[in-house]
Amino acid sequence: MASSEQVTTVGTWAGNNTDVSAVQAQLTRLWRDAAEQAQRQGLPAAARTSVLTLVAYAEDPRTIERVSEAIAALVEHHPSRAVLVLAEPGASPSLDTEISTRCLVARPHVCHEQILLRAHGTVVEQLSSAVSSLLLRDLPTFLWWPSDVAGNPDILRRLIALSDRLIVDSATSADPVASLKALSQIIARRRGIAVTDMQWARLTGWREVTAQFFDAGSARHYLAAIEQVRIDVDGDHLATAPMAGLLFAGWLASRLGWRPATDRTQLEPPGRYAVNAGGRSIAIELRARPNRPGGERQLASVSLLAGRDGRTVSFSIEQQTSDTMTTRVEGGDFPTEDRHMQLADASDARLLTHELGIFGRDRAYEEALSVAVGLLRVDAGAE
Amino acid sequence: MSDGVAVADVEAAPAANPLREGLRLPRTPEPCTLAIFGATGDLTHRKLMPALYNLSLAGSLPAGFSVVGFARRDKEHETFRQEMRESVGQFSRNRPLDPHVWGTFSKALHYLPSQFDDIQAYHRLKSELDRLDRERGGGGNRLFYLATPPSFYGLIVQQLGAAGLQHGGDCNGRQGWARIIVEKPFGHDLASAQELNGQLHQVFDESQVYRIDHYLGKETVQNILVLRFANGFFEPIWNRRYVDHVQVTVAEAVGVELRGAYYEEAGALRDMVQSHLMQLTTLTAMEPPVAYDADAVRDEKVKVLRAIRPITGSQVAEFTARGQYGAGWEAGKPAPAYRDEPRVAPSSNTETFAAIKLFVDNWRWQGVPFYLRTGKHLPARASEIVIQFKRPPHTLFTSGAEALEPNFLVLRIQPDEGITLRFGVKVPGQTMQIRSVNMDFLYGASFGVDSPDAYERLLLDAMLGDSTLFTRRDEVERSWAFITAILQGWKEQAAPPFPNYAAGSWGPQAAEELIERDGRSWHRP
Question: What residues contact residue B516 under an 8 Å CB cut-off, 6+ apart?
Answer without folding.
Answer: none
